Amino acid sequence: MVKARTTRTERFEDIVDEVFEPLQRYLYRRMPADSVDDVLSETLMVVWRRLDEVPSDASLPWCYGVARKVLSNHRRGDQRRLRLVDRLTAEPRPVATDPQGIDDGDPHLEAALELLSDQERELIHLWAWEQLEPREIALVVDSTPNAISLRLTRAKQKLANSLERQNRPASGHSPDKQVPESSVGEM
Amino acid sequence: MENEDLRSRLQKLDPTASGVEIKSVDEESSQKMLETIMSQSVGSEGIRPAWYLMGAAAVAIVAFGAVTLFGSGSTPDVAASPDEDAVELTVGAEDTLASCMALTPELLRDVPLAFAGTVTTVEGEYATLTVDEWFVGGDATTVRVFAPDGFEALIGSIDFQEGKSFLVSAYDGVVNYCGFSGEETPELRAVYDAAFGG
């Protein structure tokens, strides 16, 4: 039994070595910093509890999937609790800051991302930020690699089309007239 | 636009690109977290999960109401259940839970109703659970939780979500959700098992 426990502990520690920092980045990208430790801890607790289910060749995507659910759980719980507290106290609540809000970023790309659905945007983020392949993203979001490939391709195409529209001069402009910078940003 | 160009532009929007403090697994606080997790094996007993300790907002909720189990004598305003044997629960304004006591098997052992269930649906003001295991007090296959208008968030204090498993206990028609009921975790399960001899 001691040996089994040791093996279990060792396996967990190996997985933690691999996922500990990427999981933090995943969470920092999607939630306020002051809650990251809580969600990280809860995620790793699930990993510890379900250690036998962690695929040896895809530990990180699997852990992202757990983190995604834990995060979703926290968001829903927070929203519900805050709604009730708001109702009971009738005091205004400060507007939550968007953890993904970036100053001086890439306004065209940000605008294009806003046109995607939440699900499409998350696929794009998993692909670009976590640098996952479709088969890995499928593990995160409980889907199939084929479905993810199709959805990811579609989302990228939507982004590209959107960016192209933004870069295209507005109709009605005379070709010899320069489009003001501010107008381009508003298209 | 090429894939790599797009990915490269997206990576510049990465909120962590501007620098966040990523803790190393070797840091003392990280090691402490991991030790806590690894000490809470499924077989451990009486460990109170830290994330079930309720924050200030949730404590405020406790002060205003409790999850109420409608047994005989109560008149829950619920729609007819598709399962005639279903136990009906509701979230009401009765302030039967004045404070959060520490969860122990000894305290839990005295509750007249306790079960493990999986949420099958959450629709509007209703959450429906399929009972996976009765510890005490019933044999229905389904439990429905109803939150009257204005108290939906009290369901949220347990945060029933479809597909997730919960451990729920009730005393005298009232579910003590203040750590006594919640999503199934090894810690909560260990307390239930210790209380009911699982």
Q: Structural class of chain B, please?
A: alpha+beta
Q: Give the uncertain stretches of chain A in residue-range form.
A: 91-99, 172-187
What is the third-level CATH name, the topology of the largest domain in chain A?
Answer: Rna Polymerase Sigma Factor, Chain: A
Fraction of helical residues of chain A: 55-70%
Secondary structural class of chain A: mainly alpha
CATH homologous superfamily annotation of the largest domain in chain A: RNA polymerase sigma factor, region 2, helix turn helix motif
Count of strand segments of chain A: 0
The CATH class of the largest domain in chain A is identified as Mainly Alpha
CA distance, first residue to last residue of chain B: 59 Å
Q: What is the name of the CATH class of chain B?
A: Mainly Beta
Which sheet architecture does the biggest sheet of chain B show? 7 strands, mixed, barrel
User: Do you know the CATH topology of chain B?
Assistant: OB fold (Dihydrolipoamide Acetyltransferase, E2P)
Unreliable residue stretches of chain B:
42-84, 91-99, 148-153
Keywords:
heterodimer, A: about 190 residues, mainly alpha, Rna Polymerase Sigma Factor, Chain: A, Arc Repressor Mutant, subunit A, globular, B: about 200 residues, alpha+beta, OB fold (Dihydrolipoamide Acetyltransferase, E2P), seven-stranded mixed β-barrel, flat
Structure report:
The complex is a heterodimer of chains A (about 190) and B (about 200). With about 190 residues, chain A is mainly alpha-helical. Chain A is about 70% helix and about 0% strand. Chain A has helices spanning about 1-30, 35-50, 60-90, 105-115, 120-130, 135-140, 145-165, 180-185. Chain A is globular. In chain A, about 30% of the residues are buried. Chain B has six helices and eight strands, in the order αααββαβββαβββα. In chain B, about 30% of the residues are buried. Chain B has helices at about 5-10, 30-40, 55-65, 105-110, 150-160, 185-195; strands at about 65-70, 85-90, 115-125, 125-135, 140-145, 165-170, 175, 180-185. The longest helix of chain B is centred in the first third of the chain and has 12 residues, at about 30-40. At the A-B interface, α1, α2, α3, α4 and α5 of A face α1, α2, α3 and α5 of B.
